[in-house]
Amino acid sequence: MRRVVIGLFVCATMLLGGCSIPLPFLGAPADFALDVPLLSEQKNISLAVDEGDTSARADTAVNALSKPTEVSRSPVAVSTPRPVYQPKIEPGAQENSVDVQEEGADQQGVIAASAIPLDLSRPMIALTFDDGPGRGTERILDLLSENGGRATFFVIGDLAGKNPNTVRQIAEQGCEVANHTWGHKKLTDLAQEDILQQIGDVNDMVETVTGTRPRLLRPPGGEYNDVVLEIARQMDMALVNWSIDPKDWKRRDADAIYEAIMKDARDGGIVICHDIYNSTAEAMERVIPELTAQGYQLVTASELLGSREGGIQPGVAYRKR
Q1: Among 27, 82, 148, 302, which one is most buried in terms of CB atoms within 10 A?
Q2: Does residue 130 carry a catalytic annotation?
Q3: pLDDT digits (tens, 9 = 90+) for 89-105
Q4: Residue 245 designated active-site
Q5: What pTM was computed for the model?
Q6: pLDDT tens by residue, 117-140
Q7: What is the model's pLDDT at position 8?
Q8: Which candidate in 131, 180, 245, 274 is catalytic?
């Protein structure tokens, strides 16, 4: 009978992870202990059982014992992965990411442009919007959809994380989600590790929400240095500033913004606006239809630069101010 009890005790101990078992209550000498190795330390042992079954058998074995055992385990080194951004899904939203083919880099390191066909014989212009998502984003997206256009949205990570459905809508509509850093900090004032975090956290978040990792970066204020360019190159990203600036952040007047854009509009131009202002969204109600009527293709920054620059090179700044 004693052998049977010892056998059951040993089996239970092996399932629980191994320990040193004092056995005086079984009639053995007081200083006698039975050392049972961890399963992972035993050779030629295979245990194929699912988690539920393991738990059930372990519970049964423990309940069969009249006294608790003192379990001693060796510490195990566990590598802690970097936290993954978990978007806050608004009620009624689809939780799964949209299936978007990621814009990649070819073997020469050139960032590929969109697969959407472009008519290279027609003029094109890229509308870009910074600092959102904001109050005007959805209104601008509707206007682009109605006029068959696309645009690039350089999002702030903090705001994008609070508005994942808007970010997802941008991607679903065929527009481009690009990086404007997490907290709109001046990159040239930051240490390298902080620059990496400001850029990398946005990339992680956008990829989680849309399935596509941003390949374009617009530094706050358009300011960068060699360190920023090198970090962008290592992250397989290009910097994109602008060539047409209606100063919508300053004017806050829809008519003035419209006039400034239409005055400077030209083939290959990159317009900078901000989708956080109602006046900008109001101006787009005239700008988008008018540019379309004049024959412009409204394209993303990647599409424009990819077709006019022969490809976009990581670590290069385009459209310097």
Answers
A1: 302
A2: yes
A3: 333 333 322 222 223 33
A4: no
A5: 0.67
A6: 789 899 999 999 999 999 999 999
A7: 47
A8: 274
